[in-house]
Predict the structure.
Amino acid sequence: MNPDDVLELFDACAGVTFSTAIIHRTESEWQEILTPAVYRVARKAGTEPPFSGIYTKCDKEGVYACACCGTHLFFSQDKFDSGTGWPSFSRPVSPDNIEVHQDSSYGMMRTEVLCRRCKAHLGHVFDDGPLPDRTRYCMNSLSLSLVVCGTEIPDTNMAKSVHE
C-alpha cells in the first residue's frame, strides 16, 4: 500500500484514532454500491430538497457516519435545528475526518465539506451557527448514516438499505 493512501481517522464510538486506507473506487463501482439518490448527492455533489431528508428531524442518539464508507463524522449531541431543512451540526467528531474546499458553484462562494476517507460530498459549512464557534455544518441526509455505538458498523452497502 502506498503510504500516501494511509490516513488517521477518529473512531467516535471507541474514542481512538486509527490508521486506514483512503477509499478509491471508480464511478461505476460507486453506482453499483449506492442508491441513485445517494450517488447523485454524495458522489456528484448534489443537494437533497430541504425538509426531505430522513435525518432532518431525527433526534436519535448515535454517530452520524458517511453513507459511502462509514467514517464517523458528527455526534448526535452536536446536532441542532437550524430551520434550514437540512441536518445541522455545530462541529465534526474530529477535524481529521473531514476535508473542506472552496465551492463557487451556482454563483455563490461556499465551503464544501467532504468525507476525508472517500471524498463523498456531505454538504457545506457556514459561520452562522450557535455559539461558541458559530459554525453550522449543513449536511445532506443522503450522505449520512446514523450509527449506534456498540452495534456493528454497517459496511459500504449500508447506503442501499438505509435510503431505499
About this structure: The two ends are 34 Å apart (CA to CA). The chain has three helices and eleven strands.
